[in-house]
Amino acid sequence: MTAVEVGMQIDLDNLPALSLGCTVFAGGGGGDPRIGELMAMEAIHRLGPVEVLPLEALDDDDLIMPCGMIGAPTVMVEKIPNGAEGRVIREAYEGRFGRHVAAVMPFEMGGINGVLPVAWAAYAGLPLLDADFMGRAFPELQMLTPHLYGMSGSPAVITDERLQTIVFNTRDNIWLERLVRNCVATLGGSACGGLYPMTAGAARRPAITGTVTRAIRMGEAIRRGGEDPLSAIGQVAPLTRLGQGKVVDIERRTSGGFVRGSALVEGLAADKGRLFRLEFQNENLVVLEDGEPLATVPDIITLLDLHTGHGIVTEGIRYGQRIEIVAFPSPEVWTSPEGLSAVGPRAFGYDFDYVAVGVRHG
Predict the structure, then answer these.
(1) Phi and psi for 240 in degrees, rounded to 5?
(2) What is the tally of structural domains in the chain?
(3) pLDDT for 336-360, tens place per residue?
(4) Residue 222: inside a domain, yes or no?
(5) In terms of Cα–Cα distance, which of 150, 181, 182, 154 is closest to 168?
(6) Phi, psi of 142 (to 5 degrees)
(7) How far apart are CA 318 and CA 215, in angstroms?
(8) For the residues of 200-245, what is the DSSP string, one character each?
(9) Which terminus of the chain has a lower count of CB atoms within 10 Å, N or C?
(10) How far is 128 from 218, CA to CA, in rounded Å?
């Protein structure tokens, strides 16, 4: 590893900001971060802060470990990791590649998956990379940027809280999604995993950089935002306000390793008389009004608590919540033809094309 000047650290002071920022950029997905935050808090309390490194700080042949949880977010609320999964994944990769892991990286920047790798990095004495492979959260394993560049997600290492471990080597990433999803469902609906292991040199092309520090800045801005958290959020990332309202109906079901459902939001204040429909598969996919899309994937659609500005994950949507529906621009890689083929509205079965939220409402 190249010697570099020590930069940001994740400590007990800014860990809550990271957790909060992850709920905003997850687009409703990634799982409730509270359990991951508690695990990271304990690890930092025992072992000290975790260094955050830019990808450029690593040598080309350094091995990185993208990791997180896989499965239905509703299950993750009660089916808690035991804390040793990161070690098991790391040891599996080190045995496979014959070298030590140099850094841990969240494979997605959202929910629990933005903070749980902090705990695993602390226990391993490793830095956390300021990058991920989504720039948000998506529900399926081929929906990571390396897939767009023809890079394999195998070997993928999946382990549950009993430390039952399976290594997958599949012909392509679509088969990886199918087989891992079935495995996770059998293990109870959620498990921990390592995906798309690669060297730092290989990661320079697909990595979306700066996402960890951006989430921390977002969380810190919300905590400072006082009575106007939306303005504070808009200073960190451009957002489009789609509507303000009250959740009047929520339908949610867990099956096959996903949470699918929809929520109806009745407009309030200036939006009184409007009715919004939000549809999700782990993550928020579309917001509709009168059957017409107001925003769609891959843009980041987030429900914010009207009073605090905190992001609301899909398993946390409840009747009566007062919310703001907002959307953030997608990371540019997802708006390429290859990106839209993988994560655009038609990839989720919708019969309409993606239009950037800034274009729709500009």
Answers:
(1) -115, 125
(2) 2
(3) 999 999 999 999 999 999 999 999 9
(4) no
(5) 154
(6) -85, 0
(7) 25
(8) HHHHTTT-EETHHHHHHHHHHHHHH-TT-HHHHHHHHS--EEEEEE
(9) C
(10) 18
Q: How far is CA 282 from CA 61, 200, 226, 244, in A?
A: 34, 29, 30, 22
Question: How far is the C-alpha of 236 from the C-alpha of 81, rounded, in Å?
Answer: 32
221 within a domain of the structure (yes/no):
no
CA–CA gap between residue 129 and residue 360 (Å, rounded): 34
Cα gap 3→195, rounded to integer Å: 27
The answer on 74 and 204 residing in a single domain is yes
Alpha-carbon distance values, 153 to 168, 172, 297 (Å): 9, 8, 22
Task: List, for residues 270-282, the tens digit of each pLDDT value.
Answer: 999 999 999 999 9
What's the pLDDT at 5? 39
Sheet of 258-267: strand order equals: 292-296, 283-289, 275-281, 258-267, 240-255, 322-328, 300-305, 311-312
| pLDDT score at 97 | 97
Matching residue, tokens 């598969």: 281
Q: How confident is the model at residue 257 (pLDDT cuts 50, 70, 90)?
A: confident
Question: In which residue are the tokens 């907002």 written?
Answer: 326
207 and 169 share a domain? yes
CA distance 243 to 259: 24
The residue among 181, 212, 243 that closes a domain is: 212
Q: Whole domain around residue 120: which residue ranges? A: 9-212
Q: What is the pTM of this model?
A: 0.94
CA-nearest of 312, 317, 230 to 33 is 312
Type of residue at 192: C
Sign of the four-CA dihedral 85, 91, 92, 94 = positive
